[in-house]
Amino acid sequence: RCVIKELESLGKALYGAKLIAQRFQVRSCSHHKNPVSGSTCLLSMIEDGNPHHFFIATQDQELSNKVKRKPGIPLLFIIQNTMVLDKPSPKSLAFVQKLQTNQLVPEYQKQSIVELKEKEGLIKQEGEKRRKRKRAGGPNPLSCLKKKKKKTQEGQEPSAEKKKRRKRKRNR
C-alpha cells in the first residue's frame, strides 16, 4: 500500500507504474495509517528473515544494495523489456552453505563411522592394492579383414599366381 501511495504522490510521470503495481496482490503493511516511502516499507516487510518468501522487484540501486545484504531474498529488476532474476548475493550463498553443513552428519559421528569401518575392515589400506585380472582378448581386428584380390595381368593365367597357403592353428 505504501508503494502505491508513493506512486500516486509522484503524479502522472509514473502513472503506468502505478497501474502495473495495482494489478498485483496488495499486501497490507504495518504502517497503512501513516504511509512511509516504498523502499522503507519493502525493507520492513522482509526484516525478520523474509517469513512470507517475498521477491523484491526494484530499479533502485540503493534498495537493491540493502536487499543484497540480507540473506535469502530474491531480487528482480528490468533490463530493456526483460525481467531478470539477479544471481544470489554472497550473503545468501554463505547462509545456504551454513545451513547445509549444519544439516549433515555432525563431526563426532563422522569419526565414529570411520572407526567402525576400520574395525570391520571395510576401509582399504593404502599399501594394499588389488591386481587387475588380464582377460582373454579376441583376435586382432586388423587380422580379421578379408584379403584384397589382386588384379590379374592380361597375359597370365589366374591359376599360375595362386600359391598354397598354410593355415595357422591358434593356441588357446
What order do the helices and strands come in, and which of them pair?
Layout (H helix, E strand, L loop, with lengths): L1 H8 L5 H9 L14 H8 L10 E2 L3 H8 L6 E5 L2 E4 L4 H14 L3 H14 L37 H4 L11
Parallel strand pairs: 1-2
Antiparallel strand pairs: 2-3
Helix pairs in contact: 1-2, 1-3
Structural class: mainly alpha
Percent range for helical residues? 25-40%
List SSEs in N-to-C order: HHHEHEEHHH
Question: Biggest sheet, open or closed, and with what strands and sense?
Answer: 3 strands, mixed
Overall body shape? elongated
Q: Helical segment tally?
A: 7
User: How much of the sequence is in beta strands?
Assistant: 5-15%
What is the average of the pLDDT values? 80
Placed side by side, the strands forming the largest sheet appear as 1-2-3
How many strand segments?
3
The rounded distance between the terminal residues' Cα atoms is: 88 Å
Walk me through this protein's architecture.
This protein has 172 residues and is mostly helical. Among the domains are: 1-36, no CATH class; 46-119, no CATH class. It has 7 helices and 3 strands. Strand 1 (56-57), helix 4 (61-68) and strand 2 (75-79) form a beta-alpha-beta unit. It is elongated. It starts with a helix and ends in an 11-residue tail after the last helix. The mean pLDDT is 80. This is UTP23 protein. Residues 120-129 have a biased composition (Basic and acidic residues). It is found in: Nucleus, Nucleolus.
